[in-house]
Amino acid sequence: MSCDQDACVIVRIADPMCQKCFEEFFIHKFRSTISKSNIFGRGEHVLIAYSGGPSSTALLHLIADGLSNLDNDNSLKELLFQHTKSLTAREELIRRRKLKLLFDIAIREKCTKLITGDNCTKLAAQILSDMAQGKGAHVALECNLTDTRNDLVTIVRPFREIMSKEIAMYNRLNSIESLQNFDVATMSGTQSSIFKLTETLVNDLQRQFPSTVSTIFRTSDKLEKNLKPERCDLCCYPLDLDENQSLLSDQDRIKLVHQLFSTLPDSNDSIHVCYACQRLLRDVQPTIRSNQE
Fold it and tell me: What are the pLDDT digits (tens) for 177-219?
């Protein structure tokens, strides 16, 4: 025994080990076997044969554990999401990161179209939520059938004219079961975030006035604004303000976008962020500063 803990494993006679010592011995033996052979290249794709037996199960656990220790950035991102000032900011950050992930996967898989299940009830609530958060310049783009904010991937919304109630009826009549979708606002009240509030408002009005959703759509289609050719690096929509109107310094924008989205501009470029996304970043900024200190 090399420590004063109670032994729980005897690998060799007269060489008992506690759990911690044995795990360190086992992991070191596994890693040294791989590292000294130098057979794996950086970024190389490998296939792991998994039979469900004890050896391949332990192998899978060791590899997964090793990969999780390499990804320190994810811990920071998770911390930032947990400590944003409001549920609204957390919802919007997750929405932007989810869309960026879908764009990245589509580009990687060489897909030119991204088809989403956004229905008109949800889109109507999102339009009102966006307007309340300073994203009024983009609401007409938010509910279009095709969304070309990304130059390589076009978003297509085939359910944009179908109500959530109609989708629920179709699924029930055809015995289609959907997965329960839990998000950061699932267990919160109807007034816990701007989107939850607008969603409740739209649903309540729709029950009393069946033309509510269509009215919101028609109104949003008429809203136009002269937008700039540059795109926001967070939501990918065209910019709606000049650099001299920025709410954050260029240095702060670069730092925040990099830590939240793993995105850095080229050395001669600057991070472009629209008005609504800058307001969103200001909600996260104090958390980043406290973590850096």
Answer: 876 666 665 566 667 788 889 989 999 999 999 889 989 988 8
Residue 33 forms part of a structural domain: no
Domain assignment present for 97: yes
Predicted TM-score of the model (pTM): 0.66
Phi and psi (nearest 5°) for 138? -110, 0
**With b meaning 16 or more CB within 10 Å and e meaning fewer, what string describes 152-184?**
ebbbbbebbebbbeebeeeeeeeeeeeeeeeeb
| Domain count across the chain | 1
Tell me: the pLDDT tens digits for 113-151? 999 998 889 899 999 998 888 888 788 788 888 888 888
Segments forming the whole domain that contains residue 204: 73-292
Beta carbons within 8 Å of 271's beta carbon, 6+ residues apart: 233, 250, 253, 254, 257, 263, 265
